[in-house]
Specification:
Oligomer: homodimer
CATH architecture of the largest domain in chain A: 3-Layer(aba) Sandwich
Largest interface: A-B, 51 and 51 residues
Strand order of the largest sheet of chain A: 4-3-5-6
Number of helices of chain A: 8
Structural class of chain A: alpha/beta
Strand content of chain A: 5-15%
Number of domains of chain A: 2
Order of helices and strands of chain A: HHHEEHEHEHEHEH
Helix content of chain A: 40-55%
CATH topology of the largest domain in chain A: Dna Topoisomerase Vi A Subunit, Chain: A, domain 2
Shape of chain A: globular
Distance between the termini of chain A: 60 Å
Number of strands of chain A: 6
Largest sheet of chain A: 4 strands, parallel
Amino acid sequence: MADYIESLQVLCEQFARLQGVGRKSALRMAFSVLEFTDEEAERFAQAILDAKRKIHPCPVCQNLTDQELCHVCRDETRDRSVICVVEDVRVLMAIEKVREYRGMYHVLHGAISPVSGITPDKIRIAELLERLKDDSVREVIIATDPDIEGEATAMYIAKLLKPLGIRVSRLAYGVPVGGDLEYADEVTLSRALDGRREF
Amino acid sequence: MADYIESLQVLCEQFARLQGVGRKSALRMAFSVLEFTDEEAERFAQAILDAKRKIHPCPVCQNLTDQELCHVCRDETRDRSVICVVEDVRVLMAIEKVREYRGMYHVLHGAISPVSGITPDKIRIAELLERLKDDSVREVIIATDPDIEGEATAMYIAKLLKPLGIRVSRLAYGVPVGGDLEYADEVTLSRALDGRREF
């Protein structure tokens, strides 16, 4: 690739470490950097160091933040009696984009996956239980991914919360809005039938 | 996007400045950085600064290098009597990958484009003429892109070199190998017909 220009090769390798970046894209990005001014390159390098240094999990909900509490936990207008449990921050961001949900979150930072060695203690379930101790939460909405790991995690948490007398719900399964029924997979269709609602 | 976590937002913007990186990819990359260890993040930041600081155009051929001369100009086994003129380093890399061409290069760092204000003096044509002064070069192969700017640049250089008595050639136009003739555009087909060769 660019293996005869060592510092370009090193930069390519760094870009290629990023999720979803292949060798060709990495090379293109490295060339972009060479077209930066010195100040721009310094700003880029500094942004990497700053993000890494400043961003940490919110001590309450494990969402990412560069302040003491995350923007959701800081927001006093939000409904503290509902917690939506998500696997990662990107899901939280997706739900926030809808601007409909006004409760709190809990970010697990993963899903239970015995195959990959991710046992319940490896994700932030203990922190969730801790939050439920003071009886102020009346509902936990489990919004883990609709895949095997997400399902297993949802089941596990639901089982833990049952004895606490908290309402536990799960995001509705069904056919995606705007999708073409012809192409919906069987499991989704079956779930959509199960969950059908009367007009 | 991530506008409530300022340092994440800044990092996203930096990634989005790279060629071919959209907002979604930038966010995905920024999250990747957060998963780096501190040492990994530092190595990434350093790679950016190093590449920017160390890489410069080769004083002979304008190819990029982090040493005194580029890897082609350093290679004493190469044929110094042929120069292949390319628009940018990526084309040089593509030709090098074929491992067939054993001559030298000259990187213009652009193509003539009056519309974008890129006049002949904005690209490295003067440096090319300088190299031809000592009569050691017998052929210049013009491998600028097969688009309007590349064509204009090729014509311009060919006209300049004619009086010097140097052989000037242009990469062959034709249908790409492995392509489907049905989908070849008219101009390419017409050029392929013009350039047809007897068996």
